[in-house]
Amino acid sequence: MNQVLILTRNILAEQEIQQKLQALNYEVYCSAKIFENCGQQLEMLEFFNFFQYVILSETICESEVMELVPLLKNRSIRIIRKVEAKVTEMDHQYLEEALIHAIISNEDSVDELRECLYILKNYKGEKEPLQENRKYVQLSDKVSLIRPNVLQKESISPEDNYQFLEVLHHLSTTETKILSILLQAGNQVVTRETICHQIWNEEVNKSHLASLSSTITRIKNKFEQTNLSHKAIQTLWGKGYRINQELLDRIQMNENLKKVVSNG
């Protein structure tokens, strides 16, 4: 069983996220006292070695996060920032610099939390090497493809496309919708508000924006296993998101990839 530590100023504020994590069979320890003491007593940091994940609650202010994250970054623990509504510029910066590993909110479903933690569990901070010896690619629980014995010599090989198929088939419904929106926009930047409105089909609120930021991060993480030279989705602060040009070209050139995104 994996252990999750939630650091907070108010344990009552963590009941919803705690229940979701426990439904996924995570052992959750929620504490306000440890948070208050860990910055003053360095020996308290050894306590973090018992956990695979630490969640920094939205009840903890930014200045306190700035003090705590550097103390944890060299430990083998996944640092997750929980927000209620607004993802700050500092949160985004920490995420891009890999000082924190994910941003979540109470609005995230059990499905989304499950996928997020699974990705983080296998995250090594770099792209994983290709599994050349595998004779098949698992696309889903029920579908797999046999790899070709001989690869054609072309700029984009079938092997490469199988990698992307595998990732696309493991995107959630919301993740696929977001990718489809960005794909349709081509080289254009799509505002966060536009994406939220198309996904939820209602007036955009802060919870939607927070959930969108978390989902974008999960999409980027899933594409880390491919050979993309840059992040799958480009974040332009104050403007919105744009799909990676290399990923855009690859999907547009391959009918199988395009069909998976379109039918998602």
TrEMBL record:
PROSITE patterns: OMPR_PHOB. Residues 134-245 form the OmpR/PhoB-type domain. The keyword Ribosomal protein does not apply. It comes from the Bacteria. Keywords: DNA-binding, Transcription, Transcription regulation. Residues 134-245 bind DNA. The keyword Nucleus does not apply. Pfam families: Trans_reg_C. SMART domains: Trans_reg_C (SM00862). This is Helix-turn-helix domain-containing protein.
